[in-house]
Amino acid sequence: QVQLVESGGGLVQAGGSLRLSCAASGRTFSTGVTGWFRQAPGKEREFVAAIRRSGGNTYYADSVKGRFTISRDNAKNTVYLQMNSLKAEDTAVYYCAVTRYYSATYYPSSMEYWGKGTLVTVSS
User: Fold this and answer.
1) Exposed, middle or buried, 50 (CB in 10 Å: 0-12/13-18/19+)?
2) Cα torsion 93, 22, 100, 55: sign
3) What is the pLDDT of residues 16-72, one digit of tens each?
């Protein structure tokens, strides 16, 4: 089993920044992908960004390209999501998730393990 714990959420004004962290424990994989997803009230969970454990390839949703940056520290088993120029529409619960398998795109159904989420609220 893989345990994932997100942190770093909070309340921020529009235009501000936050950095989310996802710490993994338990069973870890030498390969695989860690992704960030978000779910706003009344909406479906959606892909935000992902990063490969090996090689560091990154993937972003169009809505966050140029504003969010995903990175990893394999020695700490931690993945980060730096969020800049935040907008009110970024308000959501942000979830970290892991899968062992590579894919061209990542959907919530692609992921095998999930954290419990951290709330990000952006005030306009």
Assistant:
1) buried
2) positive
3) 999 999 999 887 776 689 999 999 999 999 999 999 988 889 999 999 999 999 999
Let me know: does 51 contact 71? Beta carbons within 8 Å: yes
Distance CA 46, CA 36 (A): 9
Q: Within 10 Å of residue 18's Cβ, how many Cβ atoms?
A: 20
Query: What are the distances in angstroms from CA 76 to CA 22, 25, 38, 107?
Result: 10, 10, 23, 25
Cβ-contact 110, 99 below 8 angstroms: yes
